[in-house]
Specification:
Elements lengths: L8 H16 L3 H9 L4 H7 L6 H12 L11 H10 L4 H7 L1
Helix pairs in contact: 1-4, 1-5, 4-5
Length: 98
């Protein structure tokens, strides 16, 4: 069996963002504006070779892993995976550690 290549951090962000956009019947511009006050973030992410900063990835990971930002508080696994890969500790993970 051939191992599947690992997704990049930006690809993990894209995956979680697609799910958020679909869950909210919203646009990527709305998500970018909500998280980093930048409605053009995802458009530029597709065209810029250098990607994005770690700080911006952390902001998106924290936002997307927060149950308050999802319908009925149901955080999808892709958002949790993004948070783990970026190193963002979710509130749920903190509660389990206590």
């Amino acid at each position: 069996m051939k191992p599947t290549p690992s997704l990049s951090l930006v690809d993990h962000l894209r995956q979680a963002a697609w799910i958020w956009v679909a869950a909210h019947d919203a646009s990527f511009a709305r998500l970018g504006k909500s998280v980093v006050n930048d409605g053009g973030f995802f458009t530029r992410l597709e065209t810029q070779v250098q990607g994005t900063t770690t700080a911006t990835l952390e902001k998106f990971a924290a936002f997307l892993a927060d149950a308050a930002n999802w319908p009925e508080g149901a955080v999808p696994q892709e958002a949790i995976d993004l948070a783990h890969r970026v190193g963002v500790i979710t509130r749920e993970a903190q509660d389990h550690a206590s």
